[in-house]
Amino acid sequence: MAKVIILGPAHPLRGGLATFNHRLAKEFISQGHDCTIYSFSLQYPEFLFPGKSQYTDEPAPAGITIHSVVNSVNPFNWLKVGKQLRKERPDIVVVRYWLPFMGPPWVPS
Fold first, then answer.
1. Looking at the domain assignment, is residue 109 inside a domain?
2. pTM, entire model
3. Which is more confident, 99 or 68?
4. Does 108 reside within a domain?
Protein backbone atom coordinates (compact mmCIF):
# COMPACT_ATOMS: atom_id res chain seq x y z
CA MET A 1 0.00 0.00 0.00
CA ALA A 2 1.36 3.41 -0.99
CA LYS A 3 0.58 6.79 0.49
CA VAL A 4 -0.55 8.98 -2.43
CA ILE A 5 -1.14 12.73 -2.45
CA ILE A 6 -2.81 14.45 -5.38
CA LEU A 7 -2.09 18.17 -5.71
CA GLY A 8 -4.77 19.96 -7.69
CA PRO A 9 -8.33 21.21 -7.72
CA ALA A 10 -11.02 19.28 -5.85
CA HIS A 11 -14.40 19.86 -4.23
CA PRO A 12 -15.81 22.44 -3.58
CA LEU A 13 -14.13 23.66 -6.79
CA ARG A 14 -15.91 22.67 -9.97
CA GLY A 15 -14.59 21.66 -13.35
CA GLY A 16 -12.99 18.87 -15.28
CA LEU A 17 -9.72 18.69 -13.34
CA ALA A 18 -11.55 18.54 -10.01
CA THR A 19 -13.75 15.71 -11.30
CA PHE A 20 -10.71 13.91 -12.73
CA ASN A 21 -8.84 14.25 -9.41
CA HIS A 22 -11.83 12.82 -7.52
CA ARG A 23 -11.96 9.83 -9.85
CA LEU A 24 -8.21 9.31 -9.70
CA ALA A 25 -8.30 9.39 -5.89
CA LYS A 26 -11.17 6.88 -5.82
CA GLU A 27 -9.21 4.56 -8.09
CA PHE A 28 -6.10 4.75 -5.89
CA ILE A 29 -8.31 4.02 -2.86
CA SER A 30 -10.04 1.11 -4.60
CA GLN A 31 -6.59 -0.36 -5.31
CA GLY A 32 -5.87 -0.28 -1.56
CA HIS A 33 -3.77 2.88 -1.38
CA ASP A 34 -4.10 5.73 1.10
CA CYS A 35 -4.95 8.76 -1.06
CA THR A 36 -5.54 12.39 -0.12
CA ILE A 37 -6.12 15.46 -2.27
CA TYR A 38 -4.56 18.83 -1.44
CA SER A 39 -6.62 21.48 -3.20
CA PHE A 40 -7.00 25.23 -3.30
CA SER A 41 -8.52 27.42 -0.63
CA LEU A 42 -8.17 30.18 -3.26
CA GLN A 43 -7.76 29.09 -6.84
CA TYR A 44 -8.31 32.37 -8.72
CA PRO A 45 -8.79 35.85 -7.36
CA GLU A 46 -12.37 36.77 -8.27
CA PHE A 47 -11.31 39.44 -10.77
CA LEU A 48 -9.33 36.83 -12.77
CA PHE A 49 -11.99 34.14 -12.83
CA PRO A 50 -13.53 33.92 -16.30
CA GLY A 51 -16.91 32.43 -15.27
CA LYS A 52 -19.67 33.08 -12.76
CA SER A 53 -18.44 30.82 -9.94
CA GLN A 54 -15.48 28.56 -9.23
CA TYR A 55 -17.52 26.55 -6.74
CA THR A 56 -20.09 23.80 -7.04
CA ASP A 57 -23.25 23.27 -5.02
CA GLU A 58 -22.87 19.49 -5.38
CA PRO A 59 -22.06 17.42 -2.28
CA ALA A 60 -18.45 16.43 -1.68
CA PRO A 61 -17.42 13.07 -3.12
CA ALA A 62 -17.75 10.34 -0.50
CA GLY A 63 -14.72 8.53 0.79
CA ILE A 64 -12.08 11.06 -0.27
CA THR A 65 -10.10 13.25 2.11
CA ILE A 66 -9.70 16.73 0.63
CA HIS A 67 -7.64 19.46 2.25
CA SER A 68 -8.51 22.85 0.73
CA VAL A 69 -5.41 24.69 1.91
CA VAL A 70 -3.42 26.03 -1.06
CA ASN A 71 -3.69 29.74 -1.84
CA SER A 72 -2.61 30.21 -5.47
CA VAL A 73 -1.34 33.77 -4.95
CA ASN A 74 0.34 33.58 -1.51
CA PRO A 75 3.96 32.30 -1.58
CA PHE A 76 4.07 32.11 2.23
CA ASN A 77 1.14 29.71 2.09
CA TRP A 78 3.02 27.56 -0.47
CA LEU A 79 5.90 27.13 1.99
CA LYS A 80 3.49 26.22 4.81
CA VAL A 81 1.72 23.62 2.67
CA GLY A 82 5.08 22.26 1.48
CA LYS A 83 6.05 21.66 5.12
CA GLN A 84 2.74 19.86 5.73
CA LEU A 85 3.33 17.63 2.72
CA ARG A 86 6.87 16.76 3.79
CA LYS A 87 5.54 15.73 7.21
CA GLU A 88 3.10 13.34 5.51
CA ARG A 89 5.98 11.58 3.72
CA PRO A 90 3.98 10.40 0.69
CA ASP A 91 5.26 7.61 -1.53
CA ILE A 92 3.68 9.15 -4.64
CA VAL A 93 2.79 12.76 -5.41
CA VAL A 94 0.61 13.48 -8.45
CA VAL A 95 0.73 17.14 -9.49
CA ARG A 96 -2.15 18.43 -11.61
CA TYR A 97 -2.16 21.94 -13.05
CA TRP A 98 -3.43 23.36 -16.29
CA LEU A 99 -1.97 26.86 -16.61
CA PRO A 100 1.55 28.15 -15.91
CA PHE A 101 -0.10 30.49 -13.35
CA MET A 102 -1.04 27.40 -11.29
CA GLY A 103 2.43 25.78 -11.34
CA PRO A 104 4.35 27.88 -8.76
CA PRO A 105 2.30 26.84 -5.68
CA TRP A 106 3.49 23.25 -6.20
CA VAL A 107 7.24 24.00 -6.40
CA PRO A 108 7.85 24.27 -2.59
CA SER A 109 6.03 20.99 -2.09
1. no
2. 0.83
3. 68
4. no
